[in-house]
Sequence to fold (1487 residues):
Amino acid sequence: MADRGCPLEGAPLPAEVRESLAELELELSEGDITQKGYEKKRAKLLARYIPLIQGIDPSLQAEHRIPGPSQTTAVAPKQQKSRPTTSRDERFRSDVHTEAVQAALAKYKERKMPMPSKRRSVLVHSSVETYTPPDLHSAPPDVTTGLVEHSYFERPQVASVRSVPRGCSGSMLETADGVPVNSRVSSKIQQLLNTLKRPKRPPLKEFFVDDFEELLEVQQPDPNQPKPEGSETSVLRGEPLTAGVPRPPSLLATLQRWGTTQPKSPCLTALDTTGKATYTLTYGKFWSRSLKLAYTLLNKLTNKNEPLLKPGDRVALVFPNSDPVMFMVAFYGCLLAELVPVPIEVPLTRKDAGSQQVGFLLGSCGVSLALTTDACQKGLPKAQTGEVAAFKGWPPLSWLVIDGKHLAKPPKDWYPLAQDTGTGTAYIEYKTSKEGSTVGVTVPHTSLLAQCRALTQACGYSEAETLINVLDFKRDAGLWHGVLTSVMNRMHVVSVPYALMKANPLSWIQKVCYYKARAALVKSRDMHWSLLAQRGQRDVSLSSLRMLIVADGANPWSISSCDAFLNVFQSRGLRPEVICPCASSPEALTVAIRRPPDLGGPPPRKAVLSMNGLSYGVIRVDTEEKLSVLTVQDVGQVMPGANVCVVKLEGTPYLCKTDEVGEICVNSSATGTAYYGLLGITKNVFETVPVTAGGSPIFDRPFTRTGLLGFIGPDNLVFIVGKLDGLMVTGVRRHNADDVVATALAVEPMKFVYRGRIAVFSVTVLHDDRIVLVAEQRPDASEEDSFQWMSRVLQAIDSIHQVGVYCLALVPANTLPKAPLGGIHISETKQRFLEGTLHPCNVLMCPHTCVTNLPKPRQKQPEVGPASMIVGNLVAGKRIAQASGRELAHLEDSDQARKFLFLADVLQWRAHTTPDHPLFLLLNAKGTVTSTATCVQLHKRAERVAAALMEKGRLSVGDHVALVYPPGVDLIAAFYGCLYCGCVPVTVRPPHPQNLGTTLPTVKMIVEVSKSACVLTTQAVTRLLRSKEAAAAVDIRTWPTILDTDDIPKKKVASIFRPPSPDVLAYLDFSVSTTGILAGVKMSHAATSALCRSIKLQCELYPSRQIAICLDPYCGLGFALWCLCSVYSGHQSVLVPPLELESNVSLWLSAVSQYKARVTFCSYSVMEMCTKGLGAQTGVLRMKGVNLSCVRTCMVVAEERPRIALTQSFSKLFKDLGLPARAVSTTFGCRVNVAICLQGTAGPDPTTVYVDMRALRHDRVRLVERGSPHSLPLMESGKILPGVKVIIAHTETKGPLGDSHLGEIWVSSPHNATGYYTVYGEEALHADHFSARLSFGDTQTTWARTGYLGFLRRTELTDASGGRHDALYVVGSLDETLELRGMRYHPIDIETSVIRAHRSIAECAVFTWTNLLVVVVELDGLEQDALDLVALVTNVVLEEHYLVVGVVVIVDPGVIPINSRGEKQRMHLRDGFLADQLDPIYVAYNM
Fold:
């Protein structure tokens, strides 16, 4: 190897010094020696040759090292413990690559990336004792440069540790709205935004977006991309198989010949894990034991006196890697008995990686018998009966142990009639595909024989040679050379088991030396391992070798192992021409092998190819760009007797041009012939007919595709640049998984990655392959190391392959699923990644950089005026969207309506006419009635409250009074007491005793904002408001007068107040919206009675009716139903406080059943509690006599889009208790009008439509069929109430919209609120919301704007008045919508997708922050599974919504705040996130 950059060229060093330096270099690269130790030893070695070396600056020394077999990074490594020699890295790498990666990293300017935040308990891999929170003042080294001089920068604290008080580091930031924010989170988001400002690599093309179909950006071919320019290739013919040499007619005939003529000749030596030869099988023994097994299989296995096996039956061979002798006997015993051996791996557990697929293979091959050894059978997992357990997905098997004592001796003259010369199947070799499916490649007897002859000729095998075999003897080259061809040539094979290689990587070299072996069969890995272990072994000699066959020579990185191995062992007798890489595939068996010159091979060649060219499938020998190159070596010539051609990967198999990469295809008598039992894919692979550009076939016989990608180079040598299985196509470019692994390993070779274990694969997200890299990190790696390594890998891959990595995940050491020989089981890893069961300890997603096919952001059209909009709708035949409930005038005599204008009058009238009629029943958690109120009782209690207010409170007419009561009759009495004395009541939810800190400030705020002159409450709440705990949360000295109404004297008021006009304020209704705004609305007496009248008519409420209410009585429709409606209509209300359901979930449903309520009301939170809490208990409830068949209508009171999934599951669940299928419906109200829609008891059932979610983002309503892609089910929000008119208006132009548009719902009705009650009386806001007018059309009517988006549809149903029924569909709150990429998104749609992504996601909420989409998910599972969710959340939002998630926050269950109506408070959550108060388990900042 050339000494690149060597400052010592003047004085050539002696060979032993160079060797010592090479070893030293290797030690450093493996982390077995510190940088300091390395420099010390190196200086010592060189001291005699260059006395000046000590004076050289160490950083320069690092730059100008003498490269040995590897080149390390230029960054000084951390102090590391020297590792035990047994932990060997399983991968190897190329020096050229390492240099390239270092140079690439050095090119990068400093770029700060936000590091993920992680809770301490999630740092599973580092022990908590040794963990210290990072010091905020001494900043870590910059992670983005590859240079020695570290530049420092301030970085926010890494881990949030619960027990440590959190410091807020990071400078003051301003948000997009110019609000300064000082928190760790916002500084990280700023860093993220800074990294995202970098231009993306393929620029977004201009393209047309149809109104409905958002097409994904199709990547246009780059006009400058390299194109193949050579002439068409032709078929390459191998040398003919030599005739003339007397060849045995078959392998079994050969075995018989050696077994009888050379019985003492050694055939196979097995070694134990210490390297001792445990057993040598001679040809004589081999022949007799195989015969014995064949006899037993044919004559001794019966099933009801029928032989168990027929000729051609398949038999599984289950033998461990340490027992080649028994395997060989079993294999040849099956051939003798005319059975087909199917060798498979030994299953270690019932759920091995890929075990199910092996079961599929056995099932499809019809295997019913498995052969194994005594020792192996004892080690298999057992069922309770003592039998071998049934493995997942496996067919039922009988197990036969074939140790000598279990076999029957055949009679003297017995000989099987084995036919092993025809096209019958000889054996089946398993192969695992990229997707993880396992198939069996059928190898017939003819191919078996031809393969043995071709290998004998190509490798020049001669009789009685010794071969050292380090490979798996059950398949591939290990089987072809070590079990089949060896017998044909009476060779002696020494089999080195994997377990011995792990314990002593030098063992195979020692065996070559000991047995004077002429040939050895290894993989690059074995050469790399032995390099690491050869220090101090001076006595080995490899001079006896004439062929060192490198079985995975087709691997792009085998070249560096070969070079490094030669570099070290040339001085131990290894001749350069001995190294013979070969290429093979399960379908075509051996494809090509390099021959030594004495067998007529041309000199070996290397090709330095441009990585960019290769990604377009073009071969360009690279000259100028030294960084992104792939150096490959040839894998020799085509096999004797074979024809080879190179064809295009996709579509018709046209021949490639000479400078084009294609798939190698082989036509020969020595290939496999089919995938057993799979005719379809067999035809594609084993019967390919390559054609010329003109379309004519190039050969009279079909070819077999090898799955190897490559080209034919000079001297007709075959070059392989990758495998079809590792191919990842992103956009139009192709990348090879192995090359990406090599780049990642070269970033900091072996220091960070545990044993070099890296898996690279692609997943399809948004119609393109996305690259995922998963690595095992060393157990001692810190968070800082992990993040540094990840950011460097991203940069290296970006620089060298010009491709973005979609996801980079780190898992703890030894946790990736293992393939049989210790490698990584790639397809199982991919499966776990997609299922969310990989459990990484660090994740970095980079969707921003690599997802370049998102639809182009929608450009807002210049505003279409409202007039054009109407004309457009008329032309298109679209109805203007407006609808109304029944007319009030026709419904009942206006005389009664006049009488019932004031609720205080109504109560007095009822107390006078029906004094003992019960109005209210309050239930406690046990279901017993705790208090009741008849008309007269309520009237008297109200009088007492009124008297107290006037005397004790000294209040005057029009004063505001806060009613702070738990749900109950006291609250209702206090409300009417206020009306009796002319005060204005404000109902307020009492503070929660266990949570005063957060609930009390809200109470205080409502009392202050409503300007309440007095607080009415109970004794218990009074004590709470004045307690020490309360003083910690608010200033208790500023409360207004607090009156408790528990023991007020029985007094009558002199006169009951009667308002001068119906427009006088009756009460204030305060509520916190989901966007966190506290809004109080004014309800006049007229509006109050109109509201009660509408509800009475819609629900047909009369004094004889009973209704059950399970709602909070503090605001909106819940308050109206609880406090107002019973007094107005005279029906009896059964009151069930929702809080009581926490201790008795079935309380509400039992009450409905007990009181036979026809009408009942609840909230979503109540419905959810019943669905979750009573799901499994419907049987028990039925036994208790709960019967819901009385229910005509069960209405969910809500201010949001109907939760269709919840209402449907509730209906399905309680259908068993008699709940009618059509009973469940929803209501809709908002701040400006608390009851717009309500299903009621008459009228058509609620309808459901399916709309196209993509059209909805453009404010269009497009109906689609149920189940069509991107469809979203929407349920009608109940019927529009009598007297209510609704119209859909454009949010900006305020013009009326057609049926097919999504717009804001405007409402006009006698029970609209009269305005906001705000402290500063913002008139503009009031005018806008409560007295809006259309800009076109009917400009006279005054409307209230609801702030909700929705649409109207005329249905086929008829309503009560006989006309067609208009249904109102609410889509979502306007304030909550997210404007992203020019489109309008509703948080609930994104959240629904996210919740479906993984079973551990309990709840989810989304919001935006400076154009980034933030997704918060609650994890209902183990903390160490948290990181599984990051990729799944990102994937699902990309796939279904075409949005890139900026930040994924994983929190504990219950962190997402939910109000009493069961609505998510997304803005509170956003504030908590930005102020860093969520204590997240993990925060991932997607790059």
